[in-house]
Amino acid sequence: MTTACTELAVSLEGASNFRDLGGHAGHDGLTVRRGLVYRSDHLGRLSSADLQRLTDLDVTHCVDLRGEAERRALPNRLPGVLVEHLGIEPTVLRRVRDRMASAHGLGRAEAVELMCETYRDFVRLHGAVFGQVLTRIAEQRAALVFHCTAGKDRTGMTAALLLGALGVHRDDVMADYLLTNRLYRRDARVEEPAPPEVLEVLWQVQPAFLHTAWRCIDEEFGGIDAYLAGPMGLSPALRQRLRDRLLAQD
């Protein structure tokens, strides 16, 4: 694990892929503040020590991006934290089941394409949800964490849009995105039966997934600024509030 990864990661007993989104260079030579926004996988198995750690981090608000069935299966254990559900229902596992049941079957290449299609759907269908998450972040006074099940796709897309709104270079956004492959601890209890090479694609991240989303934003919506203002519904005043809260001199 690199030094940068070690600095960002928060070690928890009952969750993985929990990390600080601060430290990146953003607009006008400012730096994203640490200790204000975290991303994670699901928070349904936190220990008492984990809960104390979140208290120490001043986490008072959680945005849960999971769908209804996911939340029922693994309800968050976050006493004292306001949990808000802004769900994006998962689709890739249904598509995997459908493909495996078909005559065509499913291999690594098909799994990659299913993931890329999932990211196109994020951009095309769920801009309003991502906009709501960024609005919550702009309005918070204490720290906030957002998460899905593995903290890699819905969470990764949210993190990429947040960092993009703050002017973080896409190379640095990609670096944060790919940290999932070092930090996420796979959990067989949330995995669907599939060939090992397919599971490897589904439960990791690849540059192609996020590049697919960026290409869709650029080609179909006119770039990140237009996407933030359009599908995500972020006014200039809200975007400035977000920057004022999260950007500072290093």
Description:
This protein has 250 residues and is of the alpha/beta class. It has one domain (7-184, 192-248): Protein-Tyrosine Phosphatase, Chain A (Alpha-Beta Complex), CATH 3.90.190.10. It is 50% helix and 10% strand. The protein has 13 helices and seven strands. It has helices spanning 3-8, 48-56, 68-73, 92-101, 108-125, 127-139, 154-165, 170-178, 180-183, 196-202, 207-221, 224-229, 236-246, and strands spanning 19-20, 31-32, 37-40, 59-64, 82-85, 143-147, 247-248. It has a five-stranded mixed sheet. The protein has a two-stranded antiparallel ribbon with strand order 2-7. β4, α3 and β5 form a beta-alpha-beta unit. α6 packs across α13. The longest helix has 18 residues, at 108-125.
Which percent bin holds the helix content? 40-55%
Radius of gyration: 17 Å
CATH topology: Protein-Tyrosine Phosphatase, Chain A
The CATH homologous superfamily name equals Protein tyrosine phosphatase superfamily
Count of the domains: 1
Structural class: alpha/beta
Major beta sheet summary: 5 strands, mixed
Low-confidence stretches: none
Total helical elements? 13
**Top-tier CATH class:** Alpha Beta
Tell me the CATH architecture. Alpha-Beta Complex
Care to count the β-strands? 7
- Taken as a percent bin, the fraction of beta residues is 5-15%
Order of helices and strands: HEEEHEHEHHHEHHHHHHHE
Gap between N and C termini: 24 Å
Rounded mean pLDDT is 92
